[in-house]
User: What shape does this take?
Amino acid sequence: MSHVLAPQQEEERYQAVLAVDPAAPGALDALIVGLHDESWRVRRAASESLRRLPTLTEVAHRLVSVLAERGETGARNAAAEALVGLGDVAVGPLIRLLVHEDPDQRKFAADILGHLGRRSSESALIGALADSDLNVRVSAVEALGRLGTDEGARALEGLLKEPETLLRLAVLESLSQLGWPPPLPVVVPLLSDPLLRRSAYRVMGLIPQVAATELISRGLSSEVRSIRESALGALGTQASVADGPLRAEIDAQTHAALKRVPEAVEFVTQAFENEDMPVRAGALVAAGALREPSLAIAVAEAAREDRLLREVIRTLSRLGPEAGRELLGRMAELSLPARAAAAQAMLEMVDPSYVPALCALLEWAEDDLRAVAVKALGRTQSPEAVAPLVALLEEPALAGAAVRALGVLSRGCREAVLAALEQVVEQRPSPAAVAAFAHAGGTAALPTFRKLARAADPLLRAAALDAAMDVDPAVGLELARVALTDEAAPVRASGARAVGRVGDRSAGTLLKPALQDEDIAVRLAAVEALGESGAADRTPELEELVSHPDGALAGRAVRALGRIGTVRPEVLKEATRHADAEVVKAALQAGAVSAEGVALAVELLKHPGWDVRAMAARVLGDSGGRDSLEAVRAALSLEQDALARRALTDAVERLSRR
Amino acid sequence: MGAQVSRFDEEGRPEMSAEEFRLLRDHVYAHCGILVREDMKFVMERRLWPRLEALGLRDFTGYHRYLRYDAQRRVELEAAVEALTTHETYFFREPNQLTAFTDEVMPALQQRNAPIKRLRIWSAGCSTGEEAYTLAMLLQQSRRFEGWDVEVHGTDISRRVLATARRAEYGPSSLRAAPPDQVSRFFVPLGGSKVRVKDEVRAWVSFGQLNLLDTEACQLVPRMDAIFCRNVMIYFDVPARRRVLQAFHERLVPGGYLLLGHSENLLNLGVDFELVHLHGDLAYRKPLLSQREER
Assistant: This one.
């Protein structure tokens, strides 16, 4: 490896590090040398290569020793990066380093443990909170902030009364990062310290109490701009964690506080430009409280931050119709996320006067936005919206949205909608036009649907059948019998669905051929229809499908059997062995109320899929007896997945009450 | 029993449970490496509602099954990815970076490629094409590459946005940052508020569908002199970013440039790019001597 030690060019040294064989003797030494290279590229390559060595414990110890090399800043940082990359194996040596005599190294250890984020370092880091060196304590605070454990958060909370400002600042920031609200009385005194105020407001926003709202509101009407801004950030945070009654209180108090602020609209407008996301969130709450339509554009643009979308939509809808018209008129100037949010909010505000502007939007906007405009046209309840919507039935990307919008529009102007659709269905029939006519309640078109059920276009035949089902199930069933023999798969599938919807006693007989259909979509439709119609006479065929390798077919068969109520224990057992977790979940659901199903659920608490384990826990919570409690508790003690843990915890609680 | 009961809002729209969120998120991630953050459940719910509505599905469990099993699942997965990512793009976006590209990167590329008179630029994650056309416009405006074999290649995972890109017709929102003289120079009015990119610009631009995480498919992309990948990496997690950057590294010629969005960087990603301090911006460059991918 001499070429690693003394090559002339950076590129050669870099290539030499990359060429180190991890299994070769001396690889560790060579890479440690690389870690000390003057070039960051070489150091980084060495740091990454160290992870590939077979003796990671030894690597971790060597790297820890590099951390002690004062004056070798580049190498120490590269070693720290490498230790983070090593994962679990680095935790032990770093915990030992936390009690090293050199505070500099203890600090390094705390920093790296924080980046590693392993729960196993929790108690050592809590211990380091009592270190004699302030810098080490601050690093331990930050590390616990990254770890995110409840025990760590509680330990941090206890430090808020410590005398060192730097320490309290780090604690506040870490608690804020953890979303862990400390008790309000502990936070209140910190508001008077200019160095801590901003962070104190930040954590106060996490406290979902009216008393905190009052303090935040007081800050909002402060004469000091920086206090107002901090309070605005707290407001944004508190609004995001508040439930209904507290949220109403927040809105009311914000409104009252802002009335005392001179040039409140200007203050809020400027807050939308703030880099701090909670401050922008607070600006949204404030804008909603002010109900100032001129803020509509700034509010909509706040949607560029995805996390603010909920608050943006809420605020826009509070700004009223004037704001809606402002947004619609300036849609082309908005960013795409703002347009999307504005369009969503606009849906709540539309009236007949919006029709021309919405039609203009249809001319140029992207499809997503046009789809919202289509929906909005339906909500205008204006006869003027009929023609543009009918025209869109011929545009594939928007036809579905137009069908639904015409259905909504027909509630207010049914005659106009039906007349327009009747004409289209007669003259230029399309699947979308047929569907729209049926949605709008066009019983008069039954003869047309019958005629179209014999059309050359199979999609039109299928649509005509669906439409006939919508307006007259008896006619639909009659057409469905013919459709089941159609040469086109979409029509046969439509026929199968129709039989399921009618739920006729003859369903099992009618659907038997469809169960053997060459087209999977028809078979799936038939299985679904059997479940829907409760046709028990096809149980053997459905049972056979339970072990079908296609998870879609197998899962649907299990669900159908569950709905029919004929699922036998051995079939359930078979389904739980399926490779597809969705089939296993269907089996759990189908057998949930039976003793066999409960027994299977206990077994499935060990399933490799987190979603299966979670569902098994819910089944036991719903239907299990107290005798399941032990198994659920045992599963909970081993469970690592957060969602499965949540389901298991809930199950333990419910079972304990039985 | 057992299944989580779907909850609905006052308009009858389904709420997304934590488990539905996780299943859908994991499904999307497995498909294209796009990671929807934990705190984005509300956003995911809002953005997928129109998909449920369009497909006539009652809840997100049904949507997950549709994505798993339906014959149209691939098309729908694309629609879902499209809904979850923001295709915010417009002509002449991020002018500082474009100026730096014009004033500093273009001359370097001109000098280096003069012997072969060939230039290739990749607009990775091009969405509806505004960026790719903007780059072609800037290259033409510079007059440095007249008579050269020039191609700006735009790729995106979504077929739908590519159809828009190929049509090259745009509305006022796409032009909101375009200087009026550029609009009159490079666009043809179509009536109403729409315009179309002129044919001479379109002649320098091509498009193709590409999942940036599909390593094999990336091999089909020719060697590039510069790659623009702006505001795309934000959707990926660290491993996915590394894979994408590795693909970029392989497709760039030594000394080729990588330009990211203004909020993106390569910190802690462990890829072999060097930082280039341009006067108006930062860029990354594949080291001239790096021969890793040739070995």
